[in-house]
Amino acid sequence: MVTFGNRIDLHIETKESMMDGYVEDKLTIPLLDKDNCLPLIPDPTDVDYYVKKTTESLYMSYCNDFWWCLQNVAKGIWRDELSISEVCKKVTYRCKGNILINSP
To answer: What is each CA distance from 29 to 37, 45, 85, 96, in whole angstroms?
Structure first.
């Protein structure tokens, strides 16, 4: 498998359904419009994917999730329930990452 950093999202949907969500993702690039049915859209930008500073309430929520999940990881390891521990650990790391990146 060759990985070159690009992703093409191909899917089939009705024209009506496509028109509802076509302009929502600002990274959309039409590859082919042989029937000229697509509306004109601005040039692609990744502005929707920039990391945004979190609010204090969201930060506190992340902290709460982190500490809540951390004790579940310990319990799962103690009980030899590694599948539960792995899920909680992933949630814990995700929360921790958000706390570190978005700390107020």
So the answer is: 14, 10, 41, 34
